[in-house]
Amino acid sequence: MTSGKEDYLKAIYLISETHDVVTNKELSEMLHVSPPSVSEMITKLQKQGYVDYTAYKGSKMTRKGKREAGRLLRYHALWEVFLVNNLKFSWSEAHEMAEGLEHQTNDKLAEKLDDFLGHPEHCPNGDPVPRKDGSRLGITTRLLCDVDIGESTHIRRIMEDYTLMDYIQSKGITIGMPIAVKEKEPYEGPLLLETPGGDITLSYKAAKQIYVDD
User: Fold this and answer.
1) Which of 93, 116, 138 is the last residue of a domain?
2) What is the mean pLDDT of residues 7-35?
């Protein structure tokens, strides 16, 4: 399978975690490719049994497609853990490198890497590492921007966006960190968070991409 097809499968997998049917528009926006290119690739993936496509609605992953996409995401997550924990790369650096390494990995290498890392359950940005069958559990869906003033919770995961990951790390925010929302400025203004290391001001845009306890 080409890396291009693998990238499409991963995108469909990730989008389908919130809703089963994935539209071509969603894929076009996520992968930054033209609608005709999406249509062409979906046709190929359907012929190979990875997706079921319904005209004017979108694509739904087959069991085969979900297993393949989960395998790739597993490889990606394991490399991110290795690069951050063992080689001390930043989250964004590790994410970029893992994008290439995942395509050069097979099950044997992944198993040895998993054993070496002590079978991690989450990657550095908090996403669960997929299991061998392609599924992943424990996806949190509540956004930090929806937490009420005075409420306490924990940071669980952030979206894999290069700029966002660098911004979050520069703020000293870590996965699992306990926080409480002290202030929320109106009209999508910044949030003031109470953390063990002191108060942190966070933009609303970032808070819309950070997930906390459900």
Assistant:
1) 138
2) 92
> Helix, strand, or coil here: 27?
helix
As for how many domains the chain has, the answer is 3
As a whole number of angstroms, the distance between CA 21 and CA 107 comes to 29
One domain for residues 86 and 128:
yes
Q: What Rg value do the Cα atoms of the chain yield, rounded?
A: 18
Indicate the pTM of the whole model: 0.88
For every residue of 49-106, DSSP letters joined together read: TSEEEETTTEEEE-HHHHHHHHHHHHHHHHHHHHHHHTT---HHHHHHHHHHHGGG--
* Mean predicted confidence (pLDDT) in 33-53: 95
Q: Which of 85, 117, 138 is at the close of a domain? A: 138
* Structural domain boundaries enclosing 153: 142-212
Q: Would you place residue 1 in the very low, low, confident or very high pLDDT band (cuts 50, 70, 90)?
A: low
Let me know whether 134 and 147 are in one domain.
no
